[in-house]
Known about the structure:
By secondary structure, this protein is an alpha/beta fold. Helices cover 18% and strands 19% of the residues. The strands form five sheets. Strands 1-2-12 form a three-stranded parallel sheet, with no helix packed on it. A three-stranded antiparallel sheet has the order 5-9-6, with no helix packed on it. A hairpin with a 2-residue loop joins strand 10 and strand 11 (175-176).
Amino acid sequence: xxxxxxxxxxxxxxxxxxxxxxxxxxxxxxxxxxxxxxxxxxxxxxxxxxxxxxxxxxxxxxxxxxxxxxxxxxxxxxxxxxxxxxxxxxxxxxxxxxxxxxxxxxxxxxxxxxxxxxxxxxxxxxxxxxxxxxxxxxxxxxxxxxxxxxxxxxxxxxxxxxxxxxxxxxxxxxxxxxxxxxxxxxxxxxxxxxxxxxxxxxx
Length: 203
């Protein structure tokens, strides 16, 4: 059986189906050298490797931006947007999910997937780490928060608690860990996986 996939999937487990040939179609190739370095996050945007989208103009958001429209980058490479975003890992508050009132999308419904993704199941999964450099301003804000009695969570991942914390990032040893790196790289030499670069899907 042949399976065509437009873009790079986040779940590498599907590639374990040995009798299935997976053909991935991606618009552009990876920009590994530049994309791997977290400090180059802005340099990866506004390039041919990014869909340089903008939001619709609104009176309710993006008011500080030109024409009331925000820049909304999306990746055109192996790993997708994970190859050029800010690498921030944050689950959000449970109320954000529960207030949707959509069956199957409550916080308790999605929590098992959050808990599963950072685990190294079968040697694959998301790498999570703190940024190695902490800006002096962040340290000042931390001290101010503690002065007014706010709690500081060193390893904050759970929701529904008020306080301050240093964010987690999808990186390892100072390098970006996109889904293309963490999930797909294990299977790059498999006979049932083919990646067709510079391919655009029309329909």
